[in-house]
Amino acid sequence: MPGPQRTANQKPKDIKNAIKVFARSLKPWRFRIFIGIILTIISSLLSIFGPKLLGDMTNSATSSFAKTGHIDWGPLGKLAIELIILYLTSGILNYIQQVLFGVLTAKYTQKLRTEILAKINRLPISYFDKHQHGDILSRMSNDVDILANSLTEELAQIINSTITIIGILIIMLSISIPLSAIALVAIPISILVTGKVMSKAQRYFASRQATLGKLNSIIEEDYSGQIIIKSNSHENESFEAFNKVNEKLSEEVKKSEFLARLAFPLTHIFTNLSYILICIVGGISVLSGRLSIGGLQAFIQYVNRFNRPITSLAELTANIQLTLAASERIFDFLNKPEELENQSEQILKTSTGTVEFKNISFSYNKDKEIIHNFSAKIEPGNKVAIVGPTGAGKTTLINLLMRFYDPDEGQILIDNIPTTNLSRENVRDLFGMVLQDTWLFSGTIEDNLRYGNPDANIEKIKQITKITNVDHVIESLPHGYKTVISEDSDNISAGEKQLLTIARAMIANPPMIILDEATSNVDTRTEELIQEAFDKLTKGKTSFVIAHRLSTIRNADLVIVLNNGKIVEQGTHDSLLKKGGFYYDLYNSQFTT
């Protein structure tokens, strides 16, 4: 099987489609979003009238003082109460809206991560061969967080800023059309300049998300491979590889943030210039009697508040670009082609262990065929040894058996039923796998042993662990079967892990077994225990063994010999030796002592 193809993710480009898909994903919560939007609109409208009431209070105070020589607190107090009620109501509505969007964000984030994990389980193995694991994790964590935060922050801010701009503009026009014209001159200039800056920033925001995914892949690989890195004194090379991508990400962040944050000072410059003109013209209008002092006070406050939402929208363009980039990466992943299942309702609950390869041809890449017109029939209880040099393609047959891949031509039959007529889940339930790379999840030993058979009782588990010679290891641990295995299962040895995976396969009790019997990383005694457990596991079952031991090959009913990804010979050990071909040379170079 070829190694993973490390390719960088494509940068998000179709912004319109990203918006459409993002909006579609929010459909289950559209009523709550609608309520949140209404609350935001009402809260924003209420807060808009604050400066107007303050201006009316100023006019009331100055008018009564001019007429009577003292301030009439009656009308002034009434206006003050109205102002307090207005701000209180606006604040309460704003709080409810934030709680509503906060709950919505939590549920939306949960939904997205659930969908991504479910998608991972539905994707074909070929996808993981060609994509970096860290990039997938980045989409599930970083990109989902960015997309979810846009609900609580950006959506509410966009609505609030838009309503504020429209409402303030109407009130400003009602106070003074000439002053409003001065304030509005700065807007198109700000938008034009900001738009050009943000169009350049867009590609950096898209690129930095893809680079972040690549960086996560490197971190994940370096973290899980620390023993190999240290044992090969590869720390400097690993750091240099990380530093190269980290530097690239740093540059992209600096460029994107520089261009995005440039929007604020540019907008601020133009709005402040208009602010100076308004103060001058407004002062003249008050002195000439065309505008009240309270009206000018309110207008100046509105101009100051009018600039804020414009500036906020300018700053939001950077976050919107980042959100759309994250959106496209997430939904691009969720739309990847999944494993196609046949529509047959045929189910094979168990198997006699009869397996037939009928004229099988297969290639990972169309320009290089791995298996060509291979046929073989394995009878119930037979042991098939798969041998060949490193990289010969021994895992390819396992991939085809387990329907990780389907053959390009020909059929694989189990009990005379083509595997393509069965669901992938059904096919995989018929096999137990014990591979060289042992995998145990973070949890108790008992949970790990029950992985393939959740209904197994503790008596059955103990019986199997005794057969596989791992019971004494488990019972010597602090909490026995309830001992929690660490994330990297580093609190038990490599040989003990292998024995546990063999016990797990025996507890699942599948009709057929797939083994990678490599024991090169354990001591001689543990190797003997593992081999003994292998023999017990495969007794009476059809088994496919990636063979590393001479005894396994000699006892095999069929030996399949691979070289350069192709099946070059097949037969029994003795018949292949008599041929004096590739197997004969391989046997004499690798398996004889």
Summarize the structure in words.
This protein is an alpha/beta fold and 593 residues long. It folds into two domains: 320 residues, ABC transporter type 1, transmembrane domain (ABC transporter transmembrane region fold, Up-down Bundle); 237 residues, P-loop containing nucleotide triphosphate hydrolases (Rossmann fold, 3-Layer(aba) Sandwich). It contains 21 helices and twelve strands. The strands form three sheets. A six-stranded mixed β-sheet has the order 6-9-10-3-11-12, with helices on both faces. It has a four-stranded antiparallel β-sheet with strand order 2-1-4-5, with no helix packed on it. Strand 1 and strand 2 form a beta hairpin. Helix 2 runs antiparallel to helix 4, helix 4 packs antiparallel against helix 6 and helix 17 runs parallel beside helix 18. The chain is elongated, with a radius of gyration of 35 Å. The relative contact order is 0.09. The N terminus is likely disordered.
Task: State the low-pLDDT regions, or none.
Answer: 1-12
Question: Which class do the helix and strand fractions yield?
Answer: alpha/beta
Mean residue pLDDT = 79
Strand order of the largest sheet: 6-9-10-3-11-12
Distance between the termini: 29 Å
List keywords for this structure.
593 residues, ABC transporter transmembrane region fold, Rossmann fold, six-stranded mixed sheet, four-stranded antiparallel sheet, 21 helices, 12 strands, disordered N terminus
Short description:
It contains 21 helices and twelve strands.
Layout of helices and strands, plus pairs?
Layout: H1 15-25, H2 30-48, H3 50-68, H4 73-122, H5 125-130, H6 133-175, H7 177-224, H8 226-231, H9 235-261, H10 263-287, H11 293-334, E1 355-362, E2 371-378, E3 383-387, H12 394-401, E4 409-414, E5 417-418, H13 424-429, E6 431-434, E7 443-444, H14 445-449, H15 458-467, H16 471-475, E8 484-485, H17 494-508, E9 512-516, H18 524-538, E10 542-546, H19 550-554, E11 558-563, E12 566-571, H20 573-579, H21 582-591
Helix pairs in contact: 1-11, 2-4, 2-6, 3-4, 3-11, 4-6, 6-7, 6-11, 7-9, 7-10, 7-11, 9-11, 10-11, 15-17, 17-18
